[in-house]
Amino acid sequence: FKNIVEEQSHLLGEFGDQMNALEFMAYVSTDEELRKEGFACEEKSSKFMVEVSLRKDLYNTFQQFRKNMKDDFSALPSSQQRLIELAVRDHRKSGVWLEEDKLNQLRKLRTELSSLETRHSQNLVEDKSFITVSEKEISGISETFKNRLKKDENGRYIVPARGADFFQFMETADSEEARKRLFYAYANRAVPQNTQLLKQAL
Questions:
Q1: How far apart are CA 159 and CA 84, in angstroms?
Q2: What's the distance, CA 97 to chain centroid?
Q3: Is the pLDDT of residue 118 over 90?
Q4: Cα diameter, the chain
Q5: Can you tell me whether residue 92 is helix, strand or coil?
Q6: Integer Cα distance of 192 and 41 in angstroms
Q7: Which helix (H) or strand (E) holds 26?
């Protein structure tokens, strides 16, 4: 158990922790280049995880471990039994048990899908959708939020349809009509690009 199940779990956990810190920059950095690097890192790590999940040698080693144990793990602590249970589930769902030709097809499809997922997320993050609201429509939001909003040439406040700004406006603005407009803008971010990506994914 220690040299197979536990070791692999620890290695993948460490890898995930390191990658999460790098990929996080794609979603929070104000620097466009850093965001691009973050998404490039996310795409590479996703493809790497596809390869790891479909490695026959790791799967065969795990299956040999199960055979040696005769699939009886009752002598192990409950935490280890649970880890084995999850590994069995993940292997079954991954498709690593498929014949080589079908496995190669699956690998190709999952790799392509991981790229599409990254591009989908990147399109949402880079979307510049916004609404403009009047002084009356902005009633209810905090002064701090109000003061950091830019204005257009007509003196109307520009409210970006992105994470923090979206939720703060939706939770505090008094104007139902303004909240509806912002919700619509938020729900329709990157629609043209991501509609095409979703069609490709299907």
A1: 49
A2: 26
A3: yes
A4: 75
A5: helix
A6: 25
A7: helix 7-28
